Amino acid sequence: MPAFGNAEVAEAVVQAGATPVFADIDGSTYCLDAAEVNAVVGPRTAAVVVVHRFGRPADMTGLWEVGQRHGLLVLEQGESETPNGELDERRAQAAFLDRRLRGVRTPESGAGHTYQQYVVRVPGNGRPDRDAFARAVRSRGVDCRVPVKTPVHRIPLFRRDVCLPETERAADETLALPVGGLSSKREMQRMVSACNALGGLLQPAF
């Protein structure tokens, strides 16, 4: 299962009598990387728990192949369905941001992305620069939040000594900007202006 997310999935695994084993994510989709899953499968592995993240579907083809190769269950945790009208609006606003944002890494669109959250990467020196960027954007009246503050493998109850570089990097660099029915065109432009005024000062680290 991924460590990039909330602890509820790990809690459910424990309640089912199993032990969570964490695999790294794809740094573009924030979902499990099939190759990383394959690398941590062991003789006691029973299932792969896939979590679709921020409205971006995981690579189910690759993950199903891993499951079939090792005889594992592949379980999916989906996200709530979005009404078509709201989905169209989210995608239109995401496209607006994709075209106009500078100095931050915009999300990979991908097939079927519903933009439950519009998650950008703030380049620079990881968490310190991301947190400073978030404070500055909020001071300009733009709502934003850190989507995953602590990866699950760093939470004391589930702490594991594992190497998950993409998970760590995503936790340090990601920031969710608002999209959806509450964002007017004027609010969207204000968000772009605020982010670009700050993001232009940073040297992209990608």
Structure description:
This protein is globular. It starts with 7 loop residues before the first helix and ends in a 7-residue tail after the last helix. Strands 1-2 form a two-stranded parallel sheet. It has a two-stranded antiparallel ribbon with strand order 3-4. Mean pLDDT is 90; it is low at 201-206. With 206 residues, the protein is mostly helical. It contains seven helices and four strands, in the order H-H-E-H-E-H-E-H-H-E-H.
Quick structural gist:
The protein is mainly α and 206 residues long.
Count of discrete domains: 2
Q: State the secondary-structure class.
A: mainly alpha
Q: Quick one: CATH superfamily of the largest domain?
A: Aspartate Aminotransferase, domain 1
Distance between the termini: 26 Å
**Average residue pLDDT:** 90
Number of helices: 7
Per DSSP E runs of 2 or more residues, the count of β-strands stands at 4
CATH class descriptor name of the largest domain = Alpha Beta
Give the oligomeric state: single chain
**Radius of gyration, whole Å:** 18 Å
Shape: globular
CATH architecture of the largest domain: Alpha-Beta Complex
Keywords: Pyridoxal phosphate
Protein name: DegT/DnrJ/EryC1/StrS aminotransferase
GO molecular function: pyridoxal phosphate binding; transaminase activity
Pfam families: DegT_DnrJ_EryC1
Helix and strand layout, with pairings?
Blueprint: H1 8-15, H2 34-40, E1 47-51, H3 60-70, E2 73-77, H4 84-100, E3 118-121, H5 127-139, H6 165-173, E4 174-177, H7 185-199
Parallel strand pairs: 1-2
Antiparallel strand pairs: 3-4
